[in-house]
Known about the structure:
Elements: E1 4-8, E2 28-38, E3 44-55, E4 63-65, E5 72-75, E6 85-93, E7 95-97, E8 99-104, E9 109-112, E10 115-120, E11 135-137, E12 142-150, H1 151-154, E13 155-157, E14 163-165, E15 169-175, E16 178-185, E17 191-196, E18 203-206, E19 212-218, E20 221-229, E21 238-245, E22 250-257
Parallel strand pairs: 2-12, 10-14, 16-22
Antiparallel strand pairs: 1-8, 2-6, 3-4, 3-5, 3-8, 3-9, 7-11, 9-10, 12-15, 13-14, 16-19, 17-18, 17-20, 20-21
Amino acid sequence: MKKHVLLLVALATFFTAFVSCSSDDPQTSQVAVRLVDAPGDYDEVNIDVQDVMINAGDEENGWQSLGNVTPQVYNLLELTGGIDALLVDTEIPAGKISQIRLVLGENNSIVVDGETYPLATPSAQQSGLKLNVHQDLVGGVKYTFILDFMVDKSIVVEGNGAYSLKPTIRVTTEAASGAISGMVNPFEYQVEVSAVSGTEEAITALTNEDGKFMLHGVPAGTYSVTFTPDEASGLTAKTVEEVTVVLGENTDMGTVELE
């Protein structure tokens, strides 16, 4: 089946804290894409979403699917009042993102006064609607890209009474977490790194063979970070207080010396 592609060129820098493992460069970022709607005066507006892609390189050759997208038809008019559709939630390499592409199938329709009509996607839209943002994704941070489908501006009534889709989509981004990174010395033995804020559950990671660590998905706040070496090392645990985490940023603790 021929697919129509809507280019949404947009991005940049979302989510809840989770227990993470240390990793080497390149670091990764968690990316979610959600679809919402600005209401329109129709019974239903059904959009056939097949895939979500991003562009991390040049416009022609830099496209890649985010994967984990289940093709589905969404009634945009149900995605209001705080309701949204999660299209994808995945992990990708950190770095600059220039564009996002929403891939549509042909099963698009509109319901007006109880009657269902096909919703055509003109060939001119195959090259897409481009919204450039160009922003770096920070390793260890989760980002959400919200696609606000403005229905009233996106539906065109043709002279013959048919309906076509001319997408108008506003893209906003959120970073709802930060990260803590650094390294320990000496690093011959593995060290557990644990960050705690108030009564929240600890976020932990282990150092790698070079003594590096990163705590991913850390909510903004002030943390006590405890370093617990392997017992065989003979080293003493150490706690660093007042480590501040900012949304969308990586707090680098530098080298933490253990004794």
